[in-house]
């Protein structure tokens, strides 16, 4: 078989021949169409407005289906992370709500805090200072303690106090304890202890009239 015969029988040569024949046929067809007539050879039903509307509706339905499919795939991929985050929040809430809170005085909470400090359990020591602070607010009538009252509500209530910063330190530290499994360091406890002592000093220095006025403003 010669080289010229091989080239003419090859697939590439056949495709080029078909392309050239189609081009010649198209030029011949278009040259025979009168200039005053549309050059479109499409059937009339393809140009129907109803068909165009149907095509647009079908297109947007396909887009909606594709987006829905992508959304389902995305949710399936994020489901383990969402479940883990929800589980952590649930466990933190259970630690707060299910733990029994004994009815103790301010002095008792302080003594418990000192005992936990000596044992090196700074997490429970900070929690006792927090409970002692809540008991102080309850005893003075500034913020009566309710089981449903959250730390966020306490943070809003103490804004009316002359020096809210020590209360904020104990409340924010307690929030971190509820939503984290990390152990409290001795430095954090010392900061909470200092804030608690400031609360005792400030509360003793409050005039009775000022306490009554703050109760009225908060209530």
Set down the secondary structure blueprint.
Layout: H1 3-9, H2 11-31, H3 49-97, H4 106-119, H5 122-140, H6 151-157, H7 165-178, H8 186-205, H9 208-218
Structural key phrases:
mainly alpha, 0% strand, disordered C terminus
Q: What does this entry look like structurally?
A:
By secondary structure, the protein is mainly alpha-helical. It contains 9 helices and no strands. The protein has helices spanning 3-9, 11-31, 49-97, 106-119, 122-140, 151-157, 165-178, 186-205, 208-218. Helix 4 packs antiparallel against helix 5, helix 5 (122-140) packs across helix 7 and helix 7 packs antiparallel against helix 8. The longest helix has 49 residues, at 49-97. The model is unreliable at 204-219 (pLDDT under 50).
Brief characterization of the structure:
The protein has 219 residues and is mainly α. The protein has helices spanning 3-9, 11-31, 49-97, 106-119, 122-140, 151-157, 165-178, 186-205, 208-218.
Instruction: Give me the number of helical elements.
Output: 9
**Dominant shape:** elongated
Q: What is the mean predicted local confidence, pLDDT?
A: 75
Helix content percent band: over 70%
The H-and-E topology, N to C, reads as: HHHHHHHHH
- The first-to-last residue Cα distance is 107 Å
Work out the strand percent. under 5%
Record field, number of beta strands = 0
Characterize the main sheet.
none
Oligomer: single chain
Rg for CA atoms: 40 Å
Q: Low-confidence spans: pLDDT under 50, at least 5 residues?
A: 204-219
Helix and strand content put the structural class at: mainly alpha
């Amino acid at each position: 078989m010669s080289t010229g015969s091989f080239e003419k029988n090859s697939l590439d040569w056949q495709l080029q021949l078909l392309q050239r024949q189609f081009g010649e046929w198209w030029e011949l067809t278009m040259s025979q169409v009168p200039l005053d007539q549309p050059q479109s050879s499409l059937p009339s039903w393809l140009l129907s407005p109803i068909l165009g509307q149907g095509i647009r509706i079908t297109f947007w339905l396909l887009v909606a289906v594709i987006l829905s499919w992508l959304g389902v795939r995305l949710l399936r991929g994020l489901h383990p992370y969402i479940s883990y985050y929800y589980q952590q929040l649930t466990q933190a809430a259970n630690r707060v709500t299910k733990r029994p809170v004994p009815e103790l005085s301010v002095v008792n909470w302080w003594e418990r805090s000192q005992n936990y400090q000596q044992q090196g359990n700074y997490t429970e020591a900070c929690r006792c200072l927090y409970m002692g602070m809540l008991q102080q607010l309850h005893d003075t009538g500034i913020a009566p303690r309710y089981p449903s009252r959250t730390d966020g509500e306490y943070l809003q209530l103490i804004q009316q106090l002359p020096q809210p910063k020590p209360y904020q330190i104990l409340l924010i530290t307690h929030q971190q304890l509820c939503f984290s499994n990390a152990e409290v360091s001795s430095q954090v406890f010392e900061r909470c202890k200092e804030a608690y002592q400031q609360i005792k000093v400030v509360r003793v220095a409050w005039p009775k009239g000022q306490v009554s006025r703050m109760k009225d403003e908060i209530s």
